[in-house]
User: Fold this.
Amino acid sequence: MTSVSPPTESRRAHPAGVGVAVPTGGINVRIVATGLLLFMAAVFVTAKYYQDVHPAVGFVRAFAEAAMVGGLADWFAVTALFRHPMGLPIPHTAIVPRNKNRIGDTLARFLLTNFLLPRLIARKMQTVDVAGAVGKFLSQPAEGGGRLKLGASRIIADGLGALDQQRLGGMVKSAIADRLRELDVAPLLGQALQAALAEGRHQPLLDAMVKWGSKTLDLNEHLIHQMVHDNSGAIVRFTGLDESISNRIVAGLSKLLSEMAVDETHPIRIRVEEGLAKLALDLQHDPEMQEKVARVRDGCARRAIPRRCSRAGSASW
Assistant:
């Protein structure tokens, strides 16, 4: 396989008055074409000089003559499209430079009347996956990076930079708040919780809560001892029973949490599941519960800032 190196200079301007540029890579083709024309001219002269030697020489002379005429005609026709042959202002030459505006207008009208029709564009747009294309563009930034991507990113960045940030933020917040107010959150939460309970997806959450309780108990064991000691009478403290009581309390809590961690049918876990199931039903069917959730939703929508939702929710409850 051979590799072609790009030319260092892609275009060379013609003298003033010509108005077009010719690729420099075509210089070799012009040399070959000129050489062939001169070769045919030499063959023609030679054949004409020796045409009496043999009748076949006449065919050679005719071939060379036809080749010269055809080559000159092609050269003149192609040259006349883009410039004046040999710089001479011959009429009906340099057609493209003199009529480029009219050609451009004609081509634009042709595209407009034959391709840029609303029904054709609408049919094409129905098959275009804009969201998928944008997602692929954003998820694979390293692929297809060219001038199109750089230009598009620059246009988007300039467009966003030209927007009023305060007004843009207000518009986004307002749109989110309006959509949030229209959403009936409580039944959705109830259905999601009910589905999670039915599929056992709540068990990892309960396990995490039990582990958190065990870790919290280990870290705050001294507080339990201190509370029992402070609330015990003088005789209990004197006899050291407060220490024994606090140790029993810590041991009992630790044993309870350990049993809950290994037994999914533990009575306390069962009570928690029953409470979650009741909450799921209330979210779907209890108007009072739905009203509480709606107040929390409206509080979040009014503020449109996530970190304030918890404050609004606690106030509503």
User: Anything to note?
Assistant: Residues 229 and 242 are 6 Å apart (CA to CA).
